[in-house]
């Protein structure tokens, strides 16, 4: 049977069942003895009309349900048999009707059926088709009650014509239509369905619907879909389907149950449409509207939308906008060509994404300009740390067409609502701060202020003061000890530079070190730090301190300038120290600023017997693979990972992996920023070699550090790494 036929049958059965039930309630005394549950069910299956009648033969009383819709009478239309015969049945048809009834009563026909003219409420003759049968008998077997259905013949013919028309429509629909049985095996399908799936009718019919299942959905997806069909009788949504060829296509699928006249589920009908191309087009349009085609980042329109949302929805909630421009990009673009410029922008976008993480907060504003929205518990330190991370991510050159290209961003910062209450004001002020950063030497960041001129003056003051710091003896080194988890003794100390200016007071390293690198002052400051650290080591040795490694931090400027290994050799010889007293700490970004020269310098240092460590590992390029080509000794795990050991499983796994892989490469591992005994216990269990941090000691003045090294004893109860 066709889809429409099944649906029509179900509706007819439901109507007959309802009418029979309604009449049964009204006439319970009349037919209760005969209308058992089985008889009512059989009658509902047999009847398919939309009007119902019941005739008490003993009282000759005839009642009809549904006459209001078919003939225009009231809902409780009732007459006696004589009135029905004399008034309502056309006299030319009466003998034919009576004969049909008598044949059934005598048992010559299974049921009564006749087509005749009947007078309606408007006193007009209407052709009807009536069917009926005896539904109750007396104890002697004589007929007691007849019941049946009738419908207006013109209506029946219209319904049949509609059914045929609907079948033709289904056959010519662009959407695929198929019917399955209750076990989801196909029983029919229109040409569109066959075309969509690639099957012929012979190949499809009798097959389970699972032959169309795509592996792009989990088994749970299909279980949930069928569960909804079982519970609701319908399901609709987008899903992937598989053609006979094995290709997948995105479809919009609607499935509904088909019910029998008595309300029992018999089949499922499915309507299928291929929406793959439309979906791709919609996605492409949405993508182009909000994303930059070159870098894949959100574009200016998306940024403005996000900013508008935050301003309008956040009220006074503080956030920061970073506005970045790539330094000297125009020169690169002009010299290497636009294709190289495009590749440079793509690589810059990838580095920014690596630092920022959430792409929704990062956008390409246009040209070589990028923006970042910093939300959450925003404070100056957090924002400036992020800016520092962005700058560090560009410390290494980019490779474009086989050429190394050094490029850096200048960053302007504006805070909402302090430095802009409207979208345009915030963008304008962040842009102004960015240009101030460029004016201050590029590769730096500036916070917008109405006193930018005064800030510029302050920067000049700091630079001037820093140049005088050596002459004024304002710099000093403090030392943070390192503990061996294998021997339980202090084996080293990191030398950390501090500056207390007579004019500016205490200046944190995060401020003056970048300035020193930008201005070139890092060269004399770095040499001073090296000489001072080894001079202190000499004093400790003379005081009887056993040999420990003094770690000195070296910037990318020092490493790539050339001659650093020779400087180290000369200072060691002048101090009369063995290379075992010195360890050089380098950041990953310093290594990647000029990898070839860095590798050569490291090799020269190792040839002297000086140990080399990679500082802050995990925050830069974060790959142990590149360490194979470098002659280093130690990896220092960044404090950010150690902080997360107590509450972040990912940090635990990453820390364990770094230790394991470093050991496999023959490298020792130092964990920075250890502050709790729980962190220490974890690191000791992972066989980490050394720890450094507040749990052991804060950075100490030289004399305090000497005493600490002499007097230190492992706390009782702590087991050394590797001990069993």
Protein described:
- By secondary structure, this protein is α+β, with helices and mostly antiparallel strands.
- The protein folds into four domains: 3-159, 2-Layer Sandwich (Beta-Lactamase), CATH 3.30.450.20; 173-280, 2-Layer Sandwich (Beta-Lactamase); 294-453, Alpha-Beta Plaits, CATH 3.30.70.270; 475-711, TIM Barrel.
- 45% of the residues lie in helices and 24% in strands.
- Strands 19-20-22-23-24-25-26-27 form an eight-stranded mixed β-barrel, surrounded by five helices.
- Helix 16 links the parallel strand 17 and strand 18.
- Helix 1 packs across helix 3 (37-46), helix 14 crosses helix 15 (380-393) and helix 19 runs parallel beside helix 21.
- The chain is elongated and about 140 Å long.
- The two termini are 79 Å apart.
- Mean pLDDT is 82; it is low at 1-49.
Please count the beta strands (DSSP E, at least 2 residues each).
27
Percent helix: 40-55%
What is the radius of gyration?
44 Å
Name the CATH superfamily classification of the largest domain: EAL domain
Comma- or semicolon-separated keywords:
Beta-Lactamase; 6-stranded antiparallel beta sheet; 724 residues; alpha+beta; 4 domains
Itemize the secondary structure elements and their pairings.
Layout lengths: L2 H24 L1 H4 L5 H10 L4 E6 L4 E5 L1 H4 L6 E4 H8 L2 H15 L6 E8 L5 E13 L5 E10 H20 L3 E5 L5 E4 L1 H7 L3 H4 L14 H14 L1 E9 L5 E12 L5 E10 L1 H15 L9 H15 L4 E8 L2 H8 L1 H19 L5 E5 L2 E6 L5 H14 L4 E3 L2 E3 L3 E8 L6 H17 L5 E3 L4 H18 L5 E10 L5 E12 L3 E3 L1 H11 L2 H21 L6 E5 L2 H6 L2 H12 L6 E6 H6 L1 H14 L2 E7 L16 E4 L1 H5 L5 H16 L3 E4 L5 H9 L4 E2 L10 H10 L13
Parallel strand pairs: 17-18, 20-22, 22-23, 23-24, 24-25, 25-26, 26-27
Antiparallel strand pairs: 1-2, 1-6, 2-3, 4-5, 5-6, 7-8, 7-11, 9-10, 10-11, 12-14, 12-17, 13-14, 15-16, 19-20, 19-27, 20-21
Helix pairs in contact: 1-3, 13-14, 14-15, 19-21, 21-23
């Amino acid at each position: 049977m066709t889809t429409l036929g099944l649906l029509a049958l179900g509706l007819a059965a439901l109507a007959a069942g309802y009418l029979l039930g309604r009449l049964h309630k009204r006439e319970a005394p009349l037919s209760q003895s005969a209308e058992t549950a089985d008889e009512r069910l059989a009658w509902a299956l047999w009847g398919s009309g939309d009007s119902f009648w019941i005739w008490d033969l003993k009282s000759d009383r005839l009642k009809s349900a549904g006459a209001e819709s078919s003939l225009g009478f009231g809902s409780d239309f009732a007459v006696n048999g004589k009135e029905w015969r004399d008034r309502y049945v056309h006299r030319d048809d009466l003998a034919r009707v009576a004969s049909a009834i008598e044949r059934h009563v005598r048992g010559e026909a299974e049921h009564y059926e006749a087509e005749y003219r009947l007078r309606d409420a408007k006193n007009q003759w209407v052709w009807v088709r009536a069917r009926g049968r005896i539904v109750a008998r007396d104890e002697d077997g004589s007929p007691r009650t007849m019941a049946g259905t009738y419908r207006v013949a013109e209506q029946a013919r219209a319904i049949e014509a509609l059914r045929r028309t609907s079948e033709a429509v289904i056959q010519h629909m662009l959407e695929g239509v198929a019917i399955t049985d209750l076990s989801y095996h196909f029983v029919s399908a229109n040409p569109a369905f066959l075309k969509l799936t690639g099957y012929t009718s012979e190949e499809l019919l009798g097959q389970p619907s699972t032959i169309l299942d795509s592996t792009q959905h989990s088994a749970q997806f299909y279980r949930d879909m069928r569960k909804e069909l079982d519970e609701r009788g319908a399901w609709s949504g987008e899903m992937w389907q598989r053609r006979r060829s094995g290709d997948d296509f995105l479809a919009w699928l609607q499935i509904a149950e088909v019910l029998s006249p008595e309300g029992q589920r018999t089949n499922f009908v499915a309507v299928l449409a291929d929406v793959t191309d439309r979906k791709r087009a919609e996605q492409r349009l949405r993508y182009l509207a909000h994303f930059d085609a070159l870098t894949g980042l959100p574009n200016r329109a998306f940024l403005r939308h996000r900013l508008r949302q935050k301003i309008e929805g956040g009220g006074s909630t503080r956030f920061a906008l970073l506005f970045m421009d790539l330094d000297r990009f125009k020169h690169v673009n002009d010299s290497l060509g636009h294709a190289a410029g495009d590749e440079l922008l793509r690589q810059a976008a990838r580095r920014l994404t690596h630092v920022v993480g959430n792409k929704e907060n990062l956008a390409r504003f246009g040209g070589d300009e990028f923006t970042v929205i910093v939300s959450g518990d925003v404070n100056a330190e957090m924002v400036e740390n992020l800016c520092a991370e962005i700058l560090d991510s560009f410390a290494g050159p980019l490779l474009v067409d086989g050429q190394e290209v050094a490029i850096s961003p200048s960053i302007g910062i504006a805070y909402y609502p302090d430095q802009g209450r409207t979208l345009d004001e915030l963008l304008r002020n962040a842009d102004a701060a960015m240009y101030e950063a460029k004016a201050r030497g590029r590769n730096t960041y500036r916070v917008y202020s109405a006193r930018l001129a005064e800030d510029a003056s302050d920067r000049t003051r700091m630079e001037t003061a820093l140049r005088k710091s050596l002459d004024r003896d304002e710099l000093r080194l403090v030392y943070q000890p390192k503990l061996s988890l294998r021997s339980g003794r202090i084996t080293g100390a990191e030398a950390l530079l501090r500056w207390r200016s007579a004019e500016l007071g205490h200046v944190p390293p995060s401020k003056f070190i970048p300035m020193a690198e930008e201005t070139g002052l890092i060269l004399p400051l770095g040499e001073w730090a090296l000489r001072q650290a080894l001079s202190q080591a000499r004093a400790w040795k003379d005081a009887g301190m056993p040999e420990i490694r003094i770690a000195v931090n070296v910037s990318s400027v020092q490493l790539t300038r050339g001659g650093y290994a020779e400087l180290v050799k000369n200072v060691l010889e002048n101090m009369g120290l063995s290379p075992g007293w010195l360890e050089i700490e380098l950041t990953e970004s310093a290594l990647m600023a000029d990898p070839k020269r860095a590798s050569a310098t490291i090799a020269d240092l190792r040839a002297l017997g000086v140990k080399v460590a990679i500082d802050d590992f995990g925050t830069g390029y974060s790959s142990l693979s590149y360490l194979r080509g470098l002659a280093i000794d130690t990896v220092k795990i960044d404090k950010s990972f150690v902080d997360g050991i107590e509450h972040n499983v990912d940090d635990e796994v990453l820390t364990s992996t770094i230790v394991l892989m470093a050991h496999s490469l023959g490298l020792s591992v130092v964990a920075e920023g250890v502050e709790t005994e729980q962190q220490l216990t974890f690191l000791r269990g992972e066989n980490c070699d050394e720890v450094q941090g507040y749990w052991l000691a804060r950075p100490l003045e030289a004399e305090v550090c000497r005493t600490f090294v002499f007097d230190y004893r492992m706390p009782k109860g702590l087991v050394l790494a590797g001990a069993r």
